[in-house]
Structure formats: C-alpha cells, structure tokens
UniProtKB/TrEMBL annotation:
Pfam families found in the cross-reference section: GFO_IDH_MocA (PF01408), GFO_IDH_MocA_C3 (PF22725)
Matching Gene3D superfamilies: Dihydrodipicolinate Reductase, domain 2, NAD(P)-binding Rossmann-like Domain
MF-aspect GO terms: nucleotide binding
Family classification: Belongs to the Gfo/Idh/MocA family.
The Gfo/Idh/MocA-like oxidoreductase N-terminal domain, residue ranges: 7-126
Annotated PANTHER family: GFO_IDH_MOCA-LIKE OXIDOREDUCTASE N-TERMINAL DOMAIN-CONTAINING PROTEIN, PTHR46368
Entry protein name: Gfo/Idh/MocA-like oxidoreductase N-terminal domain-containing protein
Organism for this UniProt entry: Escallonia rubra
C-alpha cells in the first residue's frame, strides 16, 4: 500500500544508474520522485522523457536548484566520485538526507568530511550498495551464524578454518575503456577498485561482521590504463586472531563475475550473482554442510543445497524503502540517523585505502594501525 506521506527524493545527476534508482523510487511504497537535476535543463528533460517520469516531477538545470527546493527530503547522488565531497556536503548542509552512490569518496579522509556534515546536520547517510538489502543477504547471514552447520569463525589453534573469496568483473569494450567516467582520473580515479572492488570489499567485511583485518595486501597482478587508473586488481585480507583469510578480484578486463564463496570449518556457501541477482523476484545460493569424500574418493557424501529466497520488490527498491523508512523516522518521529550505514561505508573505504597504500608501497602488507 502506498504511503500517504512518502519521502520526496531528488536525483542529482543523470548517470545510467540513476534510471534504475528512479524506477526503484517509483516502486518503493514509501517514496516518490519529486525532482531531477543535471548540469543542463536539456539533459534533465531528456532523462525525464526517456524514463517516462510524471509531468509533476520537477526538472532542474543545476544541482544547486535541487538542493534549494524545500520539498526535497532526500537526495540520491550518482555523480562521479570526484564530485562527491563538494555536493554531498552541500546536500547535508541543506538538510537533505543522502543516498550516495559508491564508491563514496576518493579516500576515507573525504568520506569522514561527508559523514561529519551528515551527522552535524542530522541527516541519514547510506551508500548505494543494493545487495545488502535483498532478503537473500539476511538468509545467508543466518546460515553463516549457525556454528553447528557452518562452523566456527574463530580458530583457537590458529589453523585456517575460514576463508572468503569475492570477485566483481566485467569486460569493457573499447568505447568503455577509452571514454567511460570510470576510467578517467579526473572523474573516478579509483577505477575498477572503486567501482567493482567496492562490492568485493563490502561482501568480505559483511561476512566478517565488520571486524577490521589485521593486514591488507595488494598482489602484483595489477593493470592500469595510460592515465594510471586501475583496470584490474587482486588483494588479500588477513585476520590473524581469527585465522581468517579473504581474497578478492576486481576488473574491467575479465568476463562478467559476481562471485562470493565463504568456507567455514564445517560448511560452505557460494553464489555467482551476489551484486545483481539473476532475477528480480527471487535469488538463490548454495550451501553445503558436513561434506566429505566417500570411500575411495570417488564422490561426495552430500551435494550442495540450493536455498531460494523470494523478494517482493527488486533489491534496489528495497534499498530505497529502507532508506526512506530511516528518513521518516528522523523527520517525523525524532529518531537519530542510523549509524550502521555510515560505519559500513567507512569500513569499505578504509580497506580500499589500504589496498591503494599497499600498491604504492610495492605490494607490501598494510597493517590495521595504518588504516
């Protein structure tokens, strides 16, 4: 049932991903799209026309006009990363709740300034990682927390009992590799690490309940374009006390992948579409518990179990719905902004900074005290 008092969104920037979020705002029962802004009114009008937006949606030819609109409650901001610091702080200062596209900033120092602006102005912050909000994610966490079926994370004997691997990649064509925003150092200087690696790091930290790793180490297998932007990257994270290791691979040069594999002492979980499910209405993962080889090692005693999770809304609409719920709590009920989501984003940004630092140090480990 539609909310009689929905959160009114403004979209700042007409990037391709904004089309998906505009649809998500429409599908979310507690949200409505109030305005769209671009650097020119013509671009904003084309966006509105292309996406069949209601004539009641306001169209602005500057970001400032949108931020000055008193009827905008919250802003979705899919601008290039280089522009986040300036416009995100202005959004917060104008009391607009902020749904900020990832990567959130060029480094954790910039993100801290954004988060400080949000906190001091009492507005909710969340980044645009949609997969956190799919009900499949909650179901996976439930199984990972089952010490009988999955096993222990912490290893008293310091023997590796827990490992994680994640990948996010797609093969960009020549047009993408030459002209896309994500490969331009003045727009999105973090390249594949910021765009695809953000998901990998987020998934790893989610699996580890956001405990900071002991060390972060980039591997020498790195590719850059002529401008120095990362096109492909591999890194590892290590938790010494828990005896856990994680690796991730992100790339603009490899075949499409969105893998997440987590193995414990007694079980393992795997899915190949953790960022964007194969289908909107449902998603699945496989879980194996107590697997062993049969006699003569000619097979296994159990096969992976497929767990299917239905979803009433696409995950991006569920993200918008959850963000709007938090916004309404702040605006209408006097609640404080939920601090979970800023912490989640900051952890991903900190680990990303550590990967970059490891690369700059010649692929040496970066220790927790350094990030």
């Amino acid at each position: 049932m539609a909310d009689e008092n929905p959160v009114r969104f403004g979209i700042m920037g007409c990037a391709e991903i904004a089309r998906k979020v505009a649809r998500a705002i429409h599908l979310s029962p507690n949200s409505t799209l109030h305005a769209v802004a671009s650097r020119s009114v013509e671009t904003a009008e084309r966006f509105a026309s292309r996406n069949g937006l209601s004539p009641t949606v306001k169209v602005y030819g500057s970001y400032s006009e949108l931020l000055e609109d008193p009827h905008v409650d919250a802003v979705y901001m899919p601008l290039p990363t280089t522009l986040h610091l300036h416009w995100a702080i202005l959004a917060a200062q104008n009391k607009k709740h902020l749904l900020l596209e990832k990567p959130t900033a060029l480094d954790v120092g910039e993100l801290d300034r954004i988060l400080e602006a949000c906190e001091s102005n009492g507005v909710q912050f969340m980044d645009g990682s949609m997969w956190y909000h799919h009900p499949r994610t909650a179901k996976m966490k439930e199984l990972l927390s089952d010490t009988k079926r999955f096993g222990q994370i912490k290893s008293i004997l310091k023997i590796l009992l827990f490992k994680i691997h994640s990948s996010s990649s797609y093969s960009g064509n020549s047009e993408f590799l030459d002209n896309n925003v994500r490969v331009k150092p003045d727009l999105d200087a973090l390249g594949a690490l910021g765009d695809a690696g953000w998901y990998c790091i987020g998934a790893i930290m989610w699996a580890m309940n956001y405990q900071p790793p002991s060390t972060v180490t980039a591997l020498p297998s790195i590719s850059r374009n002529s401008s120095g932007v990362i096109l492909s990257c591999i890194a590892s994270l290590h938790w010494e006390k828990e005896a856990v290791v994680a690796t991730f691979f992100c790339s603009f040069l490899a075949h499409e992948s969105m893998d997440l594999a987590i193995s414990g002492s007694n079980g393992s979980l795997h899915l190949e579409d953790f960022i964007i499910p194969y289908e909107e209405s449902s998603a699945f993962f496989t879980f194996t518990s107590g697997a062993k080889f049969v006699d003569l090692h000619v097979g296994w005693n159990v096969k992976p179990e497929e767990t299917l999770v239905e979803s009433e809304l696409p995950q991006e609409a569920m993200m918008v719905q959850e963000f709007a719920r938090l916004v309404k709590g702040v605006n209408n009920s006097g609640c404080k902004p939920d601090c979970k989501w800023p912490k989640v984003s900051r952890m991903s940004q900190s680990v990303m900074d550590a990967v970059i630092k490891s690369i700059e140090l010649g692929f040496k480990p970066v220790y927790a005290a350094e990030f």
